[in-house]
# Entry
Amino acid sequence: MSDAISVTGLVKAFGGTRALDGLDLVVGTGEVHGFLGPNGAGKSTTIRVLLGMLRADAGTARLLGGDPWADATELHRRLAYVPGDVTLWPHLSGGEVIDLLGRLRGGLDEGRRAELLERFDLDPRKKCRTYSKGNRQKVALIAALASDAELLILDEPTSGLDPLMEEVFRETVREGRRGGHRTVLLSSHILAEVETLCDRVTIIKDGRTVESGTLAGLRHLTRTSIQADLAAPPRGLADLPGVHGLRAEGERVWFDVDTDAMDTVLRRLTEAGVRGLISRPPTLEELFLRHYDRTGASGGRHVGAAR
Amino acid sequence: MTALTGTGPLVRLALRRERAIAPWWILLIVALGLAMVAYVNRNMGTDELKLTYIDIIRSNAFLQGLGGASVEPRLDVLATWRSGGFLYVASAFAAVMSVVRHTRREEDAGRSELVRSAVVSRQAQLTAAVLVAAGISLTAGLCTAVALIGAGLQPLGSFAYGAAVAAAGWVFAGLAAVAAQAARNARSATAIGLAALAAGHVMRYVADASGQQWPKYLSPIGWGHLVRPYQDERWWMLGVSIAAGAVLLAVAYRLLARRDLGAGLFPERLGRARAPELRGPISLAWRLHRSLLAKWAAGVAFFAAAAAGLSPLARDLLSRPSLVVDNIRSLLGMSGTLGAYSWYLILILAYAVALYPVLMILRLRAEETSGRAEAVQATPMTRLRWAAGHLVVTGLGTAALMAVAGLVFGTLYSLLAGDLTTDLPRFFAGALATVPAAWCVGAVCVLAYGLLPRACAAVSWTAWALTAALGQVAGPLYGQWGGSPLEPFHYVPNVFTATPADILPIAALLAVTAALLGGGLLCLRHRDFH
# Structure
C-alpha cells in the first residue's frame, strides 16, 4: 500500500521561531489519520506546507506521490481542504461559495451537494456575513465533501458545529471510507471524534512528532488505571517495577500500571485476595495530556510496527 | 496544467465582487471628464475668455502645475487640461485598490488559503486581480473616450485621452501587484501603492509648476499627460506605460513564486507587550483611530499650503473680469477683496473636512458589524460610553483638522500676501467657525447609525455628498443652487470678514447637532446590537 502523505524531517522557521522542527508524518492511502497537538504545535503549518502554501526550509514532503510545492495545482485536483477558521466573502451567499469552490476544484457532484445541504441543514441563500461560525464551517465542509477528492485535509473541521452536526460530519466521513479509496487527514482537538473515526494518530508537540501509531498500539505505551479492593492490606506493591502513583486507604488501592508489568502486578493482587477490581484502559485524552504536559519533547517515537 | 489554471473562475469571482464598486469608479471618471467639458463651455464660451484663462494659468506656477503646462485655448485641450489631473489619478487609484483587494486582502482574510487549496495555480489570483483591474481601467478609458466623442470632441484625441487614462490604471495595477507581494499585509500594500501614486502626482505637479520637464518623465502619472491628447497625440508614450506595467507585473510574479502565503518581503513588526494607557472608551477610540486622523491632518495641511500658495495669483486675478470670481463674490456678499477668495478656500477645506466625521461614524458601524464592539461591550463598558468615546475623538478630531487648516493657511498666506498679526487670527477664527457645521453633518450620520444601522453607510455618504453639492462650493462653480439653506454650511457666519460675527447661527447649529446626537444615541441605546 502506498502512502498518501509522507513527511520526514520537515523544518519551517518564521524568523527566529521554528514552527516545525523535524516533523515526521506518514498517512497510508485509505486511512483516516488523526493529527493531534496542542495549540501552536505546528499542525496548521504542516497542513499549509502540504498544500504548497508554505515552502519547507528542510526535510521532504510527498503528497499523493507528488511534491506539494512544485506540483501544487496538479495535486489540488485530487484533494479537498477545510480550514480551521473559515472566512468567506461577506457579500456572497453560501450557495455561491459552494459552487465557486466546487468549480475551482473542477466540478462537484450536484446530487451530493443537495444531499449534504439537506443533511447539514444549511440555507444556501443566506449571505455569508449573516452566517455563524458553525454555518461558515458547514459551507466549507459541504464544498469539500461534495467533491470526489481522494484526499481530505481537515483542520479542526467541527469547531463551531453543534453535536448533531458533528454526528452528521462523522457519518459522512465514515461513508466516504466505506468506498475504501478516500484518505482523510483530520486535525482535531475533539478526542472522541478522533477515537471513533481514526485508524491511526500522530501526536506532535513543538514542531516534532512525539507519538505515531494505531490507537491500540499507542495504548500499549501507556498505563492502565487500576482500583482494587483487597482481602488484606497490600504489601510490596510499591516496590514492583511498573507501578506508579500508588495510593492506599485500608484495603483499597489505586495505582497506574505499565502494560508490560500488568501480569506480575495482577498476580501479586490475587495473592492478597481480590474482592473487587476496576481496570480502565488509558483514553486518548490521557495519552494526549501526558504528551502535552511533558516538558522537553523527545526526538520522536514511532510505533511503526503497529501498522 | 499551466500557470493559468483556475484563473477563469477567479476572474468571475472578482467581477462578481467588483459589481458594486467598479461601476462607481467608471462613472466618476466619465462624469469628471464630461463635467470639465461643460465647465469650459459654460465659463469660457468665447476664444477671448479662453485666452484670458490661459494667461491666468501661465502666470501662476500652482495653476500651471494643476493640469499640466502645455495648454492651448481650445475646448478639448482646456477640458482635458482640467480633468486630466484627476482622471489619471482616479484610474490609478481604482487599480491599486482593486489589485490589493483581490490579492493580499484575500490572503489576510484567510480566503486565499481556501481558494488555493483548490485546483488553482499559485499565480491565478494575481493574474485574475490584474486582469480585472486592467479591465476596469480599460472600460473607464473607453467610456471616457466615447463620452467625449459624444460631447463633440475630436475622436482621435478622445481615444488618445481614454487610452492614457487606461494606461495609468495599468501601470499602477502592476505597481500594486508588486506591493501586494512585498508588503507585510494588505493595509501596507495599499499604503505603498497610494504613496507611489502620490509621489508620481507630486513629481508631475512639480515638473509642470517649475517648467523642469525631467521629473515628469519619471512619473507614471506624468506619462499620461505626456501623451498630449488633442495636441499631437504621442502614442509612443502609451508604450512606455504598457512596458512599465508589464515589467512590474513580471517582478510581482517572480516574488510570488518564492514567497509563503501570507508573508511579505518584510517581516511583520511586533507591537507593544502592554497597553497601560488603554483604560476607557476614549483612549480605545484614540488608539484605534489616531492614524486616520494623522493622515487627514497631513492631507489638510498639504491642501491649505497649496491654497496659500495660490494667493498671490488671486490678488492679480481680482483685477480682471471673471465669471467664476464674480459668482463667488456675489454669493458670499463680499467686495472684491482677497478675503472673499480666502474664505472660499476655507469653505472648500471645511466641506472636505466634513467627510472626516462621516468616515468616523462609518468606522463605528464597522466596529459593530465586525463583532469587535461586542467584545468590548461584554465588559462593564456600556454601549453609550463606548459610542461616546468614539464621538469625542470624532468631534475633537474634526475641530483639530480645521485648526490645522486655519493655522497653515493663515501662516503661509501672511508670509506670502498678508500680515501675520492680523491675518493669522482671522484665518484661525474663520476656520474654527465652520466646525459646528461639520459636526452637524457628522450628527446626521450618528442619527442614521442609531435609527437605521443597515442604511447608515448610504445615508451618511448621501448626507455628505448633498452638503457638498448643495453648498457654496459647487454652487458658484456651476452658477446654480448656490448656498442652499438645506445644508449646514449655509449658516456658518463669516467670522473671517471684519464685520462682527453673529453668534446666533453658531448656537443654533450646535443645538441642532446636539439634538441629532441625542436622538441617535437614544436610538442606539434602545435598538438591537448586531
Summary: The first helix of chain B runs from residue 7 to 18. Confidence is low (pLDDT under 50) at residues 477-482 of chain B. Chain B has two domains: 7-258, 281-526. Residues 281-526 of chain B form one domain.
